[in-house]
Amino acid sequence: MPTLSSARYGKENVRVYKVHRDEETGVQTVVELTVSVLLEGEIETSYTAADNGVIVATESIKNTVYVLAKQNPVVPSELFASILARHFIDTYRHIHAAHAKVVTHRWTRMTIDGEPHPHSFIRDGTETRNAEASAKRDSDISVKSSIAGLLVLKSTGSEFHGFIRDEYTTLPDIYDRILSTEVDCAWTWKAFANVNAVESAVSKFDEAWEKARSVTLRVFAQTNSASVQNTMYTMCEQILAAVPDVDDVDYSLPNRHYWELDLSWHKGLKNTGKDAEVYTPQSNPNGLIQCTVSRDPEPRTS
Q: Which of 171, 218, 208, 195 lies closest to 79 in space, CA to CA?
């Protein structure tokens, strides 16, 4: 007899835009989010017995996102995700776990004639600041923050050699190459007892994001990279040192390749090695390098 071993459902891609208007200064601040919520609990009969009586309709989940966005701050996203996740646990007794993901899209205030404009903004890249919160009944709230879609490139200062060579290898040793990737960096916080504890840490979330982003850019730019693996490990180490309330850091870095182009077929034109200036950007296939680095567990006290 088959058994439903796990199940969750919810609403994803809920688009939210919120504006704060300062009546005294006339300055407006905007936030645009994409929100996803997934629920778990005593919902198995909706799958096995067509019992819709245990389902909180996904339309209701969407509407809840809008109502809570009106009633609560939506920044930092870690707090809003925690408020969302805890709401479904507190509201529906048969829901035992709720998972909320909040993606914050970039809107940067315009500078016009050297002055910040009070209500005009520019989308200056696809990078997003993300947060995920999971709440379980009679348990802590787990929160994970991340940077996604941060596209970086350096035109030198990267090499790759000394790797395994066998009958499948065609890649030559490389001592100077272009390094480019789309950064996906996440860090998991020590557990929070409740939403109040998350709210008390609000200032830490912004500070951690700034530090994680700064470490990522600084290490990427300043390190002579022997490999993406070693570079990302260094990034993880430095973030753990800079943010003591974080338990682990993970990176996912796809290689965005730029290959040298041999133009010798055209009148002996030199465009390889030290003469390389024109390259061909590649879309796929690409390397994908991932890791998670965790803080050493605290020693037990007798």
A: 195
Reference 100, options 44, 57, 39; nearest CA is 39
Which DSSP string do the residues of 183-219 spell out, in sequence order?
EEEEEEEPPBSSHHHHHHTHHHHHHHHHHHHHHHHHH
What DSSP designation does 274 have?
Answer: G
∠ Cα 58 65 68 (to 5°): 145
pLDDT band at 300 (very low <50, low <70, confident <90, very high): low
Q: Are residues 270 and 251 in contact, defined by beta-carbon separation less than 8 angstroms?
A: no
Query: Which residues have a Cβ under 8 Å from the Cβ of 83 and sit 6 or more positions away?
Result: 68, 72, 195
Instruction: Choose among 242, 247, 209, 215: nearest CA to 231.
Output: 215
What is the CB neighbour count within 10 angstroms for residue 136?
Answer: 17
DSSP conformation letters of 160-188? B-S---STT--PPPBSS--EEEEEEEEEE
CB atoms within 10 A of CB 60: 12
User: Between vectors from CA 219 to CA 217 and to CA 225, what angle results, nearest 5°?
Assistant: 120
Residue 109 identity: R
> Number of C-alpha atoms within 13 angstroms, CB side, residue 287?
15
105 is catalytic: no
CA angle 60, 64, 66 (to 5 degrees): 120
Among this protein's residues, is 144 annotated catalytic? Answer: no
Q: Which residue out of 62, 101, 105, 257 is catalytically annotated?
A: 257
**Which residue out of 45, 58, 223, 234 is catalytically annotated?**
58
Q: What does the pLDDT look like over 57-115, one tens digit per residue?
A: 999 999 999 999 999 999 999 999 999 999 999 999 999 999 999 999 999 999 999 99
CB contact at 8 A, 38 and 74: no
- Does residue 205 contact residue 145 with C-beta atoms inside 8 Å? yes
- Closest listed residue to residue 109, CA positions, set 19, 229, 215: 19
